[in-house]
Specification:
Number of helices: 0
Distance between the termini: 25 Å
Number of strands: 8
Order of helices and strands: EEEEEEEE
Largest sheet: 8 strands, antiparallel
Length: 129
Amino acid sequence: MLTRNRYLAGYQLDYKFNDRLYAFGLVTWDRDTFAGFTRRFSESAGMGYAVFKGPRLKLDVNGGPAFRQTRFINGRSGKTTTARVGVDAAYKILDTLTLSETAGLYFNGAFNSTTALTGAVSDKLSARL
């Protein structure tokens, strides 16, 4: 029995003004029939700032307007203009082990979050959980 079926693809382009301030453009596509939609495109652009930028801790926050187009499983579609805020954090536990969090909140109620533990297997290979 199928209990989960989700696909997600995205791309973010950053333009750095200086060591901490940047502009970004973000495009994502996802499909999640269990959440009630067959496809959703999201576009967002805005500004970001590196709050912490140390050897062990990194924390970036960003935000801006967003536009989303959704096709629901019942055949209807919807378009939403909203705002998005995001966070990108990483904490280096050991030289070879990093805990990271990437999250985005759309003010229409959607929230995406990915928490990962990444460890170096060799100089050129790592594993992520």
